[in-house]
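Changelog-adjacent note: as of this version, every example in the card shows the full chain rather than a window. The one below runs 516 residues end to end.
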Amino acid sequence: MIELHDITKSFAGARVLNGVRFSLAAGRILGLVGENGAGKSTLMNILGGILQPDSGRMAIAGQPYAPRHPNDATAAGIAFVHQELNLFPNLNLAENLFLTAFPIQGSPSSPRKGFGLSVIDRRRLFDMARQRLDVVGLRLDPQTPVERLSAGERQLVEIARALGEHARCIILDEPTTSLSARESARLFELLQQLRQDGIAMIYISHHLGDVLRGCDEVLVLRDGEVVGAGPRPEFTAERLISLMVGRSLKQLFPERRAPVVPPAESSASNPVLEVRGASRRGIVRDISFRLHRGEVLGVAGLMGAGRSELARILFGLDGLEQGEVLLDGRPLAGSPRRRIQRGLAFLTEDRRADGLCLEAAVADNIALVSLRRLVRTPLRLLDRGRWREAIRSVRDAVKLQPSVQDVQPACTLSGGNQQKVVLAKWLLSGPGAILLDEPTRGIDVGAKFEVYQLILELADRGAGVLFISSEIEDLIGLCDRILVMNRGEIRASFDRAEFDRERILQAALPAEERPA
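Full-length structure tokens:
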């Protein structure tokens, strides 16, 4: 179905892809893995018609394939589910699902009325949208604006849109990043159905367990070259990691230097962050906990449990109807700007939408929340010397790759380097408490380890870290204590000695879905 021969691509003289070749048969799933910056996205952008190769050739079903535009790829039967979601938040679900189908009058997949009228049949549009949403298990009104959806729900909408394009080959870039365990299982069921229909799929993921579980073949990229390829049974997680990073990782999580902090309800130390009876109707209810200095406190839960919503409330993005939040023993109120000044930081779930100014330079992003401390009085002019020194020191702290230039726009970086820029921004602000919402989302195992190190270094310096994650293994590997949220409430709390994956997952499930 798909053939690529000796594909090369360079940007500004830097070779990104070097002689990449592979083939994929109909009804097969190829797992594509590699570190951030290995060339995976560039390769798929070439296949999807977004970029053109410098040299090499491609073929689909034996016919030469040289797309000059994404529409060429769509016409050839290539559908692309991007890691960074491409939905219009101000449009509803149905409009996003059929955006490219509106101009095609008379097509069975178009919701337009006939007779030469440029009119959308709204009833037909919503009926067709419901059918597509049902396929991915989304029970939502097609008229719901996308801006009201969670990140996981938006991911499923992207997948539903790709499945509706009658593709011969579907490229899925990190499709399970924002999905719960149940939604991931549903996705894999869909992929197996598509295999039986003869659809070829390229599955890009940093979740090596997903690749080893659901793919037929594996292709490993490192520095733009193929360093491993073959049937899935030939690979283990250890071999994949070694091929990806060029070395063997002896451990997945750094060792903790500092001792574990006192238990949550202990009065032996004053908490840096305390939440008392926090409630917001339909979002969270009666949330209470303490976060101590030097503690990494995990928050587990399924999608929709209220974890991200709680973080937004703590940071002042959403209001609190009842209860109070204290930072260093004093009530925390006011705007996010005021909370930043008090020493609170928030790394959001969606770094591109909420964490970065994508068109701004790396250095400008890093200094964004610390500019007030980098000025000369009384004229409040930016002290360029202090600014450069601050950027340099924090770049070293987060191990930002030397190839990343200070003047480079943030949108040109790989996912791992983008996340390091966001972490550098908050590290420079010197927070007393930091809220981390899915900080390792969409980054490779090597970059993950470096992010883990940064989290523990923050705690070792005395900051309190609230670590929200859908990955139970990450929570168990890093945290001193784990809170489990379920339908807006804290349903369980586990100290490190009590950590158990099954118990945590069971506490996160609604009562009616727990095993007897």
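Structural remarks: DSSP finds 17 helices and 22 strands in the chain.
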